[in-house]
Design brief:
30% strand; 5 strands; mainly beta; single chain; globular; 1 helix
């Protein structure tokens, strides 16, 4: 993606192969489970960026996370987000 290698809001570089995500409010480092409500697939990601800035979206996930959620083709999907405790 065009963002690969660029610095995220947290200061680390974006890696499309890592299981990370952008969220507007959750603290950096927070781990959340994202569930695709269309197919029940889930993935755990770590928040390391701010966004999404598109209206109506809750979270932007990396390419690797989108693959695990089986939403690469659709680009978006209805999801549930749950904070994970370490």
């Amino acid at each position: 993606t065009k963002h690969h290698g660029r610095k995220t809001a947290s200061g680390e570089r974006f890696d499309q192969h890592a299981l990370t995500a952008a969220h507007r409010q959750l603290p950096f480092g927070t781990r959340v489970q994202v569930t695709n409500l269309r197919n029940g697939k889930r993935v755990a990601v770590r928040i390391n960026d701010r966004g999404p800035y598109s209206r109506g979206r809750l979270i932007d996930v990396s390419k690797a996370a989108a693959e695990q959620l089986d939403m690469l083709k659709s680009g978006t999907a209805p999801v549930r987000i749950e904070t994970l405790r370490d």
